[in-house]
UniProtKB/TrEMBL annotation:
Lineage, highest ranks first: Bacteria, Bacillati, Actinomycetota, Actinomycetes, Mycobacteriales
Source organism of the structure: Corynebacterium urealyticum (strain ATCC 43042 / DSM 7109)
UniProt cross-references to InterPro entries, sorted A to Z: Acyl_transf_3_dom, Acyltransferase_3, SGNH
Domain of life: Bacteria
Name of the protein: Putative membrane protein
Keywords: Membrane, Transmembrane, Transmembrane helix
Pfam families for the chain: Acyl_transf_3 (PF01757), SGNH (PF19040)
Length: 825
């Protein structure tokens, strides 16, 4: 039966809540995209929230601030604690150890209602379901919603205290102003930093505020128990209601199919589904149920509405943990997805029956000062049987969650020790083990600690010296241009400058370039954007259009031509055949055009041959990205099940002392053939013929005998599919320095142009690459290798005897977690 204007409970809105949760679950499980369900939830929350707070503020006998807060917490927190506890326990049991530290941190953040800020500050975009995604990721919306509710409660309470005659009209004016400001902020942030904008509480406020304004217009509440005033928006006639209902529901349902919510919400595009939700609400405002309203008031939709909160909490951790444990994909195995949804519904129904309903507060909560009286606690004991089982479940969950800080502390301490050990180049030679046949001591702990992504990133990430996908302005100062300090590495006081330009594959060599710059007296200045090689005609990693890359590239080129570097630009000179990393490497014609432009303007180019992009066969379609860090973690734990080799591998018996045989087994599983992504010879040599370039190639440091593995010289080489860990990248400093300053290699027909930069260490006794008199056994670097001036020459790095003739390359200090570059170029 449809609600009338005076009724507070709207069955059609409860059904709309059920429809929204159905969209969320279906899109998460089967589509792998963001639907509009969460945005509709936020709108519906605002419909009732602000009206009730206005009524409390205007009624002397209304709920106090503390009472309102207690009611909200009692409604939301108990089940959240249970889900977080169960998820943490299941995650520690079933998910790879590589994810345990992040699990523990995310669990604490979920209970503290700060998940949205954790995700925003760590740069984790809202990702589709996979084994590497946090099972707590979906709780960002719960965090943002509670933050908005608490802030609004405080604001309404203060305004009511200051202005005793607090009218409905005054609240409407204030709420309208704040909602408009929030919408403007979300629109601005959408073009500045969408990764943060998606999770930002103030960016999300306007969705709840819009709901509050709608509630005041169509469902005004009485202040002192009298009859509610008439709705400002009159009821619609039957045919308009039917039109609004169907059109609105179609708008809500189609949003996830026609737009990318992760890159759109909560910007202006969010109006599309929210306007649809408003139309559905108006369609059910008055009279008998017709059309969509009849469907929303059906028993099934009412059931979904009742369990919507519990279903939202349960479905995502069940999906992520089971995807991680089984390796299944609901989009490829639909029955797996159906089973996930069925299990989620059962868990939601049980949670609603055993936890939500017993603890749901009926009647008025007691005022704050009463909580400390004996009579209050006597009453609580008297009604204990009703809530005993719910409280027992919550206490058990609380005990599990209490283990989270212990897990985090142990792994942090272990990680600090691993970073200390990895700073020893002799025990952790990394790429020198391949390029120089450096001795690799056996039974060393695998390093760096790969359980957490943040410390594996190049320093440009925590320094705020790169820009995200949506923005197109240049980042030239640290902290995203908020600092006065230049984005620069190497010798910061030098007048000799090199621009490091492009995407994350230029960026991940920054640790090595920092070392090279300090040795050679050169300042390396990065101008970087996620996923955007300068002047490349590419799409985003997901295949969508990338207009910000084109506009950013133009700004980069204009800046370089207007402010030319003294030494040149440094960038990658090749890339895979497609955006996913499939197919052999190529030199895009746009790259050649860019280098020719630089040559014509007297600017030298240092071009690094791209590294291997690791992919693995999919059951259908093209190969898919292969995360080597994840693979190593699963193999170490003995939890990888994707191949027979992995299933038969029991894991590393002693994580701190893996045997050479165990590392060999891991590398056989976690690696790809060199010819999957790299050509037999460097294609740069002919592609850049006649241009003013120095060609760089460190392939011999990460591939050997046709195989490119995950663990090289006791170091975990990759942080994902195709990005080096920062400490592994730092070990390329010798080779890069040698190829830039000792024995540079030019392109075909322009070999002489490679010798562009002077060697700051030339003639210094003991300098890298120098045959110092009186040192027996020191031979010229590259001796016995192909001539560096010839195409296909190997890695021109110092010889094994030369290691140690300069200060050892130290491991980068453990940085704070920062925005991961993701699977992007």
């Amino acid at each position: 039966m449809a609600s009338t204007g005076g009724k507070r409970f709207r069955n059609d809105i409860e059904g709309l809540r059920g429809f929204a949760i159905a969209l969320v679950v279906i899109f998460h499980v089967f589509v792998g995209k963001v639907s509009s369900g969460v945005d509709v939830f936020l709108l519906l929350g605002g419909v009732f929230f602000f009206g009730s707070q206005l009524a409390n503020a205007r009624n002397p006998k209304g709920l106090t601030f503390v009472q309102s807060l207690v009611r909200i917490i009692r409604r939301l927190f108990p089940l959240l604690a249970v889900v977080v506890g169960a998820t943490l326990a299941a995650g520690l049991l079933l998910m790879p150890r590589i994810q345990h530290l992040q699990l523990a941190k995310d669990a604490v953040g979920a209970l503290a209602y700060i998940t949205n800020w954790q995700l925003a500050f760590s740069g984790r975009d809202y990702n589709t379901a996979s084994s590497t995604v946090s099972p707590f990721q979906h709780l960002w919306s719960m965090s943002a919603q509670l933050q908005i509710y608490v802030a609004s409660l405080i604001a309404v309470t203060l305004i009511a205290l200051i202005f005793r005659r607090f009218s409905r009209k005054a609240l409407a004016v204030i709420l309208t102003a704040v909602t408009v400001l929030s919408f403007a902020f979300a629109t601005y942030q959408h073009g500045q930093d969408q990764a943060v904008n998606y999770y930002h509480s103030f960016s999300r406020f306007w969705e709840i505020g819009l709901g509050g304004l709608l509630g005041m217009l169509i469902m005004p509440r009485s202040d002192h128990g009298e009859k509610p005033p008439a709705p400002i928006v009159p009821p619609l006639n039957t045919w308009v209601r039917q039109l609004f209902g169907w059109l609105g529901l179609i708008m809500i349902a189609s949003t996830g199919l026609i737009m990318d919510g992760a890159q759109t919400f909560p910007g202006p595009g969010t109006l599309f589904p929210l306007v649809g939700a408003v139309m559905v609400i108006l369609a059910g405002q008055n009279g008998k149920p017709v059309g969509v309203t009849r469907i929303l008031e059906s028993r099934f939709m009412q059931f979904l509405g009742r369990i919507s909160y519990a279903l939202y909490l349960w479905h995502w951790p069940l999906l992520i943990i089971l995807v991680s444990y089984t390796g299944y994909n609901a989009q490829e195995q639909p029955l797996f997805g159906v089973a996930i949804i069925a299990a989620s519904v059962v868990m939601a129904w049980l949670s609603n029956r055993l936890i939500e309903r017993p603890l749901r507060q009926t009647g008025r909560p007691r005022r704050a000062h009463v909580l400390w009286t004996p009579s209050y606690w006597w009453e609580a004991i008297r009604v204990w049987p009703k809530t005993a089982y719910a409280m027992v479940i919550i206490l058990i969950a609380g005990g599990v969650v209490a283990a989270a800080p212990v897990v985090a502390k142990n792994q942090v301490e272990e990680g600090e020790e691993l970073w200390r050990l990895a700073s020893n180049v002799e025990n952790y030679p990394g790429p020198l083990a391949f390029s120089n046949d450096a001795f690799v001591p056996p039974r060393q702990p695998l390093a760096p600690p790969f359980e957490e992504m943040g410390p594996l990133l190049p320093p440009t990430q925590p320094d705020g010296c790169q820009i995200g996908f949506e923005e197109d302005h240049l980042i030239l100062k640290r902290n995203f241009n908020r600092s006065e300090e230049d984005c620069a590495y190497g010798d910061l006081n030098s007048e000799r400058t090199v621009y490091v330009i492009g995407g994350s594959h230029s960026e991940h060599f920054i640790p090595a370039l920092d070392e090279v710059g300090r040795r050679q007296g050169v300042k390396f200045m990065p101008i970087l954007k996620m996923g955007c090689p300068v002047n490349a005609n590419i799409t985003k990693w997901d295949g969508s259009d990338f207009p910000s890359c084109r506009s950013w590239s133009k700004k980069v080129v204009d800046h370089i031509l207007a402010n030319p570097p003294t030494e040149g630009v440094w960038m990658t000179g090749t890339r895979p055949s497609d955006i996913a990393g499939n197919g052999p490497e190529q030199v895009p014609p746009e790259y050649v055009d860019l280098v020719k432009l630089f040559t014509d303007n007297g600017i030298h180019s240092y071009l690094m041959r791209d590294n291997a992009w690791h992919t693995q066969p999919a059951e259908t379609g093209a190969p898919v990205p292969f995360d080597l860090r994840e693979c190593v973690g699963e193999m170490v734990d003995g939890t990888r099940t994707t191949t027979e080799r992995a299933r038969n591998f029991p894991g590393v018996r002693d994580r701190w002392r893996p045997t050479p045989e165990e590392i060999e087994e891991i590398n056989a599983e976690c690696g790809t053939a060199q010819d999957d992504s790299l050509l037999p010879e460097d294609p740069q040599y002919q592609a850049y013929a006649g241009l003013d370039v120095t060609l760089l190639d460190v392939t011999d440091g990460f591939c050997k005998d046709g195989w490119c593995p995950a663990i090289i010289g006791n170091l975990v080489a990759y942080r994902d599919q195709h990005h080096f860990t920062n400490i592994f990248a730092s070990r390329f400093a010798n080779a890069i320095e040698y190829q830039m300053y000792k024995k540079p290699r030019g392109a075909e027909g322009s070999e002489d142009k490679a010798r562009k930069a002077p060697d700051a260490t030339a003639g210094q006794p003991g300098a890298p690459g120098e045959n110092t008199p009186g040192q027996p056994g020191v031979e010229e670097p590259g001796a016995g290798q192909p001539d560096a001036g010839q195409p296909g020459a190997g890695l021109d790095a110092p010889s094994p005897d030369e290691i140690g003739q300069h200060p050892p390359v130290q491991a980068p200090p453990v940085p704070q977690p920062a925005a991961p570059a993701g699977d992007f170029y």
